[in-house]
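Field reference: "sequence" (input) and "structure" (output). Example, CAAX prenyl protease-like protein:
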Amino acid sequence: MTLVNEPEAQPGRRRGLTALRRQRSVRLAVLGWVACNGLALAVAGDTLPFDWPSAAARTPLGRVVDANLVLIEVLLLTALTYWVSRKRAMPDLASRAPRRSVAARETLFLLLYAAGALGLGFALARLAGWHPFGLHLAGSIYGTHEHVSPAEAIAWASFNLVIYAVVPLLYFRRHYSAEALNLRSGNRRADALLIGVILTVESLVQIATLDPEIFDLPARQILLGAPLTFTLYLAGAVLPAMVFIYAILVPRFLLLTGSTTATVILGGLTYTALHVWDAWTIFDSPGNAALSVAFLILTYFAPGMFKTVLTVRTGNAWVHVWAYHAFAPHTLADTPHLVHVFHLK
């Protein structure tokens, strides 16, 4: 099965893949991805300017290769998702959005709201002497930052939870049902099966390829750090992304574009944009800004797309939370970081 709505697809796997390749959104996405690869290699030179303790030994070429391997994994996970759910009917997410004119206004408002929230997160965090608030706590993915304090971590999670999850949910739940916001499962058994399969595969891949430092921690630090990491990242990263993008925006993207493929791509781009203030990004020169944007896309676009795939395939925004966000990667990868931040013994 391809990542297109049924009216777009043609009978047969080959025809479906041909139809997928012919879509303008796919061509633009491929062109953008290739451009990011080329830009990263052309501008970076021999080294990257980013503070990446966990990837300090990797060359720019190595990091580009890593990003493309993640993309390949996401494509394989997408194929696995469609195979596991092959007997399920595709949920009609577009019907959960309001009429087109209202959906367009709401989408524009949400994107402007997100831009304003990122600006507010930058200003408030800088006033406090912290890293700007984006969708990830400083030190996530690329290594621990010595100067992240417990107060910063708690403020980051609280800000994101309120701004991207609580406020939008309070507003939209006044006008739309839980089903219209992708918050209710249409098939709990099938959702549980898909969550179990994807979570198992993704966890095994991360353990095999990243050698997470969580396994080097003493048992007491794991027992204290893992629940703390799960809770803090659930509040600061997982629920904000789930509510803002996958519960509210995804049905509107689908209605406005009429294409599941375009919706998946837009989901990936929106997810990427919410990480613009990652602590490693540098915007002090045109070259560094270009590299920052390129590596934001190389880092987050593919995972953001797959989260959208899980949502459009199941109609349940909670599926990606448990299958591909809260436990793997965050609890698995970031527990050592929060053990360090909170000085857990």
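The longest helix spans residues 219-257.
Residues 13-341 form one domain.
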